[in-house]
């Protein structure tokens, strides 16, 4: 069967709250994004997502997410988070407006002592194991950290950060064995979701019996808290007032009596039971009728907003149960109370319009209480409309009922005897509502199971994509992310992962599109912005990079991502000293930010400060063991220094971490080519072109190698492909000119040399020498023909 959307949202909400309660805010943010993608129109989704950002200290994102509902004051949670963010961002007027608009939603009284946001006062085993694993990992004890993360995932597959850390540590993980459900996992959500569903259905949903001591439905009568358990329960052996199947009876509105439903008393405080039974040992069916009527009114939906009259009701029960046996011969009402005399001004006490009583109450003639019955009387009672009784007037002493609980009822005529004075007056009687039958446990369990299967399948796809990306199988990761629903593909986390995968493949154009989309959806996101700035650096988009850098620095000036973006902007402008200052500032803000050390090393290489570059790269490796960019940087330094053996070794180390990086493979081929091993280098270049077929630098190196070993036709094919990929590259046209010169095509050679000269005037000396050598070859050929 198809998964229930409400159940899926309920499971996600509970997961977000679980991680918030266990201080796993990044996990909470991840699942809040899933909830927002699943139910984007719900203010509750926006509230939880904004709350996660606020807990992570990202007030700007909390402001943006909660602004839609918060500023208008339509949702109290969004308004409160929005106002908190405004306070931190110094946007005081917006926060004041939001709270003032949401003032009608505030609680009337203080909630101190009534809040229970954390169901379990201490973290569970999964949260504790995950935290212990993080501590061991920070302590560089990998052998002890890995089992802790495995235990956390075994106890709770929703511990997302435990899974991602294992992937980042290059630990082999079987994704299908982690993200799977079981009975105990389903029951943990079933109880909470069942309670929510019961509240939404007016208490019409029963819950599973586990744990046995918990009663969660409005229909089930708890024998321990039932004030009338001694009269109809099986604990004392007196069961005359209940039929054998009373345990399965469900209490609905008395209007359902027309559909042959039975009236059952809901739960009431035990102290009233002990008091009533102590005062009236002969408590019989008439007393049960009183308790049923009063208990039902207390169990109605008005109970939640009117709790104060409970003490007055207990006094009413005590007074009615302490009547003497002689007084019972007087005329009484259906609930056992004596009939109140008419007052001097002709008013009658308040009467109940609920006279269409169930058969069990109407057949209580065997008791000492007289009950008015008869078809004619019943019809007459239905038509009755008496004036307002003295119960509703202050100072009235004509009734034992103190205050209104359930609202006023329609009045009865003066000439009709009070039928049920124990019924509490109501302001307005709602129309009869047909209550649906309770849903079985199996139905609710099936909904939760389907929701869990849907969520776990979603997590399985995301986990598979993340695992493939951590192993740098980027294309396979992209194919996996493409299988996600569109709503989840357009979330910041998935877009960032897809953008990084394209970046690792050197597909900078596609990566830039994904990050641009990410900036539109989440303009306040800081994570992965250093990668986006590097992509813009590779694309030579100086204006876009400068705008991004200044926007990030103006928004959050103390973030390392912002200073990395600014450093890349200065680097693209060829101001390497300013770029170095920015990258050093990023490492001061976050000494564990490995990528900033790597960018710092690149700038030292541009300034030919090789010793400082090696120091920066080693700091990056110390911050992150699998940071292949730093190994690549060290290899590049040694290659410039002429130490090709060490360069090849570090390139190989980087390639072991990232085996599909075309640039690394090209670097190994370049080192071999410098060592005059062109044929072996060509193998690396060919492999690199297979991994990145649209990378111009890779094909350029392959074309040079083919020219070097004399494979002219293959070289011409590669150069023609390069001409289409990078028509503005001067080196491509220069190589085409040399190839035409070798093939004795002087006209094509001159054309390509001229295009190369116009594209790169700085290389004019080398290009002019090539043209002059072409003329010298022609002069030499003419002299040879003359002799």
From TrEMBL:
UniProt cross-references to SMART domains, sorted A to Z: TPR
Cited SUPFAM superfamilies: TPR-like (SSF48452)
Naturally occurring in which organism (per UniProt): Diplogelasinospora grovesii
Positions annotated as TPR repeat: 126-159, 560-593, 594-627, 628-661, 662-695, 730-763
Protein name as annotated: Uncharacterized protein
Claim: tRNA processing is one of the keywords in the record: no
Family: Belongs to the APC3/CDC27 family.
Database matches in PANTHER family: CELL DIVISION CYCLE 16,23,27 (PTHR12558), CELL DIVISION CYCLE PROTEIN 27 HOMOLOG (PTHR12558:SF13)
Polar residues bias: start-end ranges: 214-223, 231-243
Key words, A-Z: TPR repeat
Pfam families for this protein: ANAPC3, TPR_1, TPR_16, TPR_19, TPR_8
């Amino acid at each position: 069967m198809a998964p229930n959307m409400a159940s899926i949202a309920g499971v996600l909400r509970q997961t977000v709250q679980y991680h918030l309660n266990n201080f796993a805010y990044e996990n909470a943010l991840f699942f809040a994004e899933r909830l927002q993608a699943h139910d984007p129109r719900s203010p509750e989704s926006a509230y939880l997502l904004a709350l996660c950002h606020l807990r992570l200290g990202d007030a700007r994102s909390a402001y943006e997410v909660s602004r839609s509902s918060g500023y208008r004051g339509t949702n109290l949670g969004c308004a409160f988070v929005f106002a908190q963010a405004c306070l931190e961002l110094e946007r005081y007027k917006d926060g004041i407006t939001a709270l003032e608009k949401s003032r009608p939603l505030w609680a009337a009284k203080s909630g101190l002592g009534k809040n229970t946001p954390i169901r379990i006062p201490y973290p569970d085993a999964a949260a504790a194991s995950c935290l212990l694993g993080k501590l061991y990992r920070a302590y560089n004890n990998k052998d002890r950290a890995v089992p802790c993360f495995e235990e956390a995932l075994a106890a709770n597959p929703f511990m997302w950060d435990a899974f991602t850390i294992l992937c980042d540590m290059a630990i082999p993980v079987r994704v299908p064995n982690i993200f799977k459900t079981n009975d105990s996992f389903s029951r943990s959500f079933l109880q909470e979701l069942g309670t929510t569903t019961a509240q939404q259905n007016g208490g019409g949903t029963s819950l599973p019996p586990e744990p046995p001591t918990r009663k969660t439905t409005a229909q089930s009568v708890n024998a321990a808290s039932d004030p009338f358990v001694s009269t109809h329960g099986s604990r004392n052996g007196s069961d005359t007032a209940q039929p054998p199947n009373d345990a399965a009876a469900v209490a609905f509105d008395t209007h359902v009596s027309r559909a042959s439903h039975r009236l059952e008393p809901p739960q009431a405080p035990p102290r009233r039971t002990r008091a009533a039974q102590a005062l009236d040992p002969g408590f019989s069916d008439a007393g049960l009728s009183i308790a049923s009527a009063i208990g039902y009114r207390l169990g109605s939906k008005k109970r939640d907003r009117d709790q104060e009259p409970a003490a007055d009701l207990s006094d009413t029960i005590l007074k009615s149960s302490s009547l003497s046996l002689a007084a019972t011969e007087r005329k009484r009402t259906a609930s056992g109370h004596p009939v109140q005399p008419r007052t001097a001004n002709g008013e009658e006490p308040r009467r109940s319009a609920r006279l269409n009583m169930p058969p069990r109450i109407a057949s209580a003639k065997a008791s000492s209480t007289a009950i008015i019955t008869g078809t004619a009387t019943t019809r007459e009672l239905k038509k009755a409309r008496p004036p307002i009784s003295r119960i509703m007037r202050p100072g009235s002493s004509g009734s034992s009922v103190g205050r209104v609980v359930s609202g006023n009822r329609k009045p009865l005529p003066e000439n009709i005897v009070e039928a049920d004075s124990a019924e509490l007056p109501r302001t307005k009687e709602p129309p009869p509502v047909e209550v649906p039958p309770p849903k079985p446990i199996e139905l609710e369990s099936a909904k939760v199971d389907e929701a869990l299967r849907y969520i776990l399948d979603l997590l399985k796809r995301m986990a598979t994509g993340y695992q493939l990306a951590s192993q740098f199988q980027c294309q396979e990761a992209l194919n996996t992310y493409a299988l996600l629903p569109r709503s989840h593909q357009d979330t910041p986390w998935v877009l960032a992962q897809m953008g990084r995968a394209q970046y690792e493949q050197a597909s900078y154009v596609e990566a830039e599109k994904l990050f641009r989309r990410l900036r539109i959806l989440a303009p306040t996101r800081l994570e992965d912005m250093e990668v986006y700035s590097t992509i813009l650096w590779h694309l030579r988009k100086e204006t876009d990079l400068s705008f991004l850098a200044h926007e990030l620095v103006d928004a959050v000036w103390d973030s390392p991502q912002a200073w990395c973006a600014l450093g890349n902007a200065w680097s693209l402008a060829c101001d390497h000293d300013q770029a170095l200052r920015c990258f050093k500032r990023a490492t001061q803000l976050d000494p564990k930010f490995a990528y900033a050390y790597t960018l710092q090393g690149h700038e030292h290489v541009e300034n030919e400060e090789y010793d400082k570059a090696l120091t920066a790269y080693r700091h990056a490796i110390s911050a992150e063991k699998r940071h292949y960019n730093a190994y690549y940087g060290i290899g590049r330094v040694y290659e410039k220094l002429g130490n090709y053996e060490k360069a090849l070794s570090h390139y190989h180390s980087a390639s072991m971490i990232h085996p599909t990086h075309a640039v690394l493979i090209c670097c190994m081929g370049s080192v071999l080519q410098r060592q005059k091993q062109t044929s072996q280098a060509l193998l690396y270049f060919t492999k690199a072109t297979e991994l990145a077929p649209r990378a111009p630098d890779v094909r350029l190196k392959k074309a040079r190698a083919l020219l070097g070993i004399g494979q002219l036709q293959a070289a011409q094919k590669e150069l023609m492909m390069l001409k289409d990929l990078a028509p503005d590259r001067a080196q491509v046209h220069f190589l085409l000119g040399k190839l035409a010169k070798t093939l004795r095509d002087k006209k094509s050679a001159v054309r390509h040399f001229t295009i190369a000269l116009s594209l790169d005037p700085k290389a004019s000396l080398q290009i002019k020498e090539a043209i002059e050598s072409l003329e010298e070859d022609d002069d030499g050929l003419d002299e040879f023909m003359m002799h």
